[in-house]
Amino acid sequence: MEAPTTPSADGDGSGAAAAAGGQDGGWFGRGQTGARGPQRPGHPETGRSAPGSARPAQRRPAPAAAAVPSATELLRRTMAEIEPIADRVTSYFYALLFLHHPGLRDLFPAAMDAQRDRLFKALLTAATHADDPVTLTTYLTHLGRGHRKYGTLPQHYPAVGEALIGALARHAPETWGPRTEAAWVGAYTTISQIMIDAATEDELRAPAWWQAEVVAHVMRTKDVAVVTVRPDGPYPFLAGQYTALETPWWPRVWRHYSFASAPRSDGLLSFHVKAVPAGWVSNALVHRARTGDVIRLGPPTGSMTVDHTSDSGLLCLGGGTGIAPIKALVEDVAQHGRLRSVDVFYGARRDHGLYDIDTMLRLQQSHPWLSVHPVVDDGPVGLLSGGIPEAVREFGPWHTYDAYLSGPPGMIRRSVDTLVGIGVPSHRIRHDSIEELVGATT
């Protein structure tokens, strides 16, 4: 599906000349040729100058032609130009979209504060992976399936492409031009088609969302609740995955939460939710939701799952409510009955933040292969302190373990740096998308 284009500015090299291959300076530099006076004859046998004669001027090699940038390089140049003004570009993108296609406004939440950056950033993220088809296809397939819950249809994609091209053309004058526009149109055509195909395929096997009734709501601290729901139909997922939730109090506002248990025989799903300041969905789920309320679930997603064909140990780091998917992974290992070492580092700022420590210690008592290490940033004697990354350094070695990380984005970044620094290969480190974790905190 091709996105409509807009009139181009001449910022791509030298505008039309650059697009034509660099004539008149464009992508090719010109060598300077100085005036040369008459040459005195030299010896014909040797080619050397005759005695007393001036040496002939040496012929300078022609300057090499500047390389024509690839389409991917053009995309990245545009990205670099708009990065300092990303907020302005995003606002203009949505203004164009809603001005020319007002019917699409109903697909977005009434308050755009949290949603505003997501679609635009997703498009830009996809464009930067244009030269990595495997990563691009995986990312966009997930994105296309996930967008079904918003009510996105194939006919909506050209409008989004038109707004994207318009916003970039307006705010990237230094890098924009015919060739850059063509690169972005080509990239968006690929992006949209992969997403459409993924959504079409997914439509044949699963609904866009599930209705789910709240059957239990237990406060674990003054701002953390365990919410258990019963979906209105089969809901297949894997331990370690997550989904998006929408409440009836904030229509069209979705937030990601991890499943707090491995799949259960009764089909119930549990989530650990912490209410955060100004968090619309989190506050609604913690302080407003009650038994009998109905919420909506998006499809399960995420690759932080256990490889049950391996005997490698598991190193699991869970911070705050990030213990939820870690607990699910432990249950998953127990259900499969394959003996393998599992070490869990469960962290919080204060000891009272370890709200699920009793559950984890009971699991440790039931499974000799499981070791649970409570960690607090600043706590009483007898507990590991200083944060999860620092505590992990005191144990190990971990280079043969598969690492699973879940918690606040800052904790995950520090933990990844620590694990890589102590020799854990990066391909053994798994965690959810940092961008989606940031979105889950509202």
UniProtKB/TrEMBL annotation:
Composition skew (Gly residues), residue ranges: 22-34
Family affiliation: Belongs to the globin family. In the C-terminal section; belongs to the flavoprotein pyridine nucleotide cytochrome reductase family.
Name of this protein: nitric oxide dioxygenase
Presence of the UniProt keyword Transmembrane in the record: no
Catalyzed chemical reaction(s): 2 nitric oxide + NADPH + 2 O2 = 2 nitrate + NADP(+) + H(+); 2 nitric oxide + NADH + 2 O2 = 2 nitrate + NAD(+) + H(+)
Keyword Nucleus on entry: no
Enzyme Commission no: 1.14.12.17
Superkingdom per UniProt: Bacteria
Keywords (A to Z) from UniProt: 2Fe-2S, Heme, Iron, Iron-sulfur, Metal-binding, NAD, NADP, Oxygen transport, Transport
UniProt-listed Pfam families: FAD_binding_6 (PF00970), Globin (PF00042), NAD_binding_1 (PF00175)
Residues of the Globin domain: 68-200
Region (Disordered): 1-69
Domain FAD-binding FR-type, chain residue ranges per copy: 207-307
Transmembrane regions: none
Cofactor: heme b; FAD
Amino acid composition bias (Low complexity), ranges on this chain: 9-21, 48-69
Species name: Streptomyces flavochromogenes
